[in-house]
Amino acid sequence: MSSLPAAGIPTSQRRIAFATIIGTTIEWYDFFIYATSAGLVFAQLFFQPAGEDIALLLSLATVGISFLFRPLGAFLAGHFGDIIGRRAMLVITLVLMGAATTLIGVLPAFAQIGIAAPILLLLLRILQGLSAGGEWGGAVLMAVEHAPAHRRGRAGSWPQLGVPLGFLLASGMTALMTGVISPGEEYLQWGWRVPFLVSVVLIVVGFVIRRSVEESPVFAEMAERGKQTHAPIVALFKHHWPLVILAALVFVGNSTLGYMTTGGFLNNYAIAEQHLDTTAVLVAAAVAAVVWFFSTLLAGVLADAIGRRSTFLIGFCLQAVVVFPIFWLVDTGGLPGLYAALVLISTGLGLTYGPLAAWYSEIFPASMRFSGVSVTYAIGAVLGGAFAPMISQMLLEATGTTAAVSCYLLLTTLLGAAATLCLRDRTGIPLGPDHEAEQASGATVFAPREAADELSGKR
């Protein structure tokens, strides 16, 4: 698309990279600080009257319930993002997430206000889910639609880095607090609140940075020509619902395993079942986030070199190999075993997360792309990561063995790999509004053969 301005200018690319990485890091820090606290303190502070085991399940369930509202956030952000622009939605979702996180930091516990405490906690978690549902689509489109075709994989990995960075920041902050304050009475009283209140400063920084970037050139061209779709969600499900389901299942294969760490299950298992030190476990999680960061960067490079689909399949193969050993390592290796398990998980996660932004952006038409990537990602999160910690805890309690959890992780990994095989690699396809017909055809292996041949010929 020749009319896109300055897609390859290094200064512009650096500015977009910085804005998307900083913004998504802050968003996911807010999201993960909740998940980390859910495994450590929320059961005791907000759900204790239900009894120890049920309280933990309820606490982990609130992590998952917010995912049910991510599709709604994705619907809203996708609708308005395809109509009023990508940048505006990025700013709105950032402020919404920050407000919810800060309010959790000042929320009274069950001992102070009774049943209102868990109800308010759940409502604020729902606000986080709405924000997270709208955040991802805008961030990845700002990155990918600004990038030249041969660098979309790397550009798409920029907002993906916000997830491991946000997890690193959340784990690091919690580890700092549990290290400075003994994870006992003082931490339960006020120490856990500090990481939530820090969000105020982060949101101000993110707001200023995101306001400074230019609108996506693809959306700017659509707006100039008046080519926005007035009901993008309706058009998406009318014409592309099989594609939405298949692409969502790809993310299921990643997010289920991912939420073993970010959702708090593996951390809580290491602390509660293997009696490892809380701060040491959180430090291990932070180290794993660093590995996840670099494997995500590597995946972006690989996606440009060998294609999105091939990179995903390599990552899913690695995931399938490690789902049983990770628990064996934690059970028998103590803290070094936990480090090894988290490194193995993080390497596979990066390879199945880094290329996601570019691939999703290339399979949906420009006029409904924000809706497509946002809704697909949210559905994948609900079907995969949403209740993965709670399901894993239930399987562990019902069977008394982590083998059941490993089987569950293997099943979702194979499901993601199968969905990957059903999609075609669309590396380099033009993203602008002049190529809607080409973008709307040939994304799955079930599309007419001639559509795929035509697409291949044009490239």
Automatic annotation (TrEMBL):
It is found in: Cell membrane. The keyword Cell membrane applies. InterPro entries: MFS, MFS_dom, MFS_trans_sf, Sugar_transporter_CS. Residues 16-428 form the Major facilitator superfamily (MFS) profile domain. Its main location: membrane. Keywords: Cell membrane, Membrane, Transmembrane, Transmembrane helix, Transport. The chain crosses the membrane at residues 54-77, 89-113, 119-144, 165-184, 190-209, 241-260, 280-303, 310-330, 336-360, 372-391, 403-423. It holds the Pfam family MFS_1. It is a multi-pass membrane protein. The keyword Transport applies. PANTHER family: SHIKIMATE TRANSPORTER. This is MFS transporter. It comes from Promicromonospora vindobonensis.
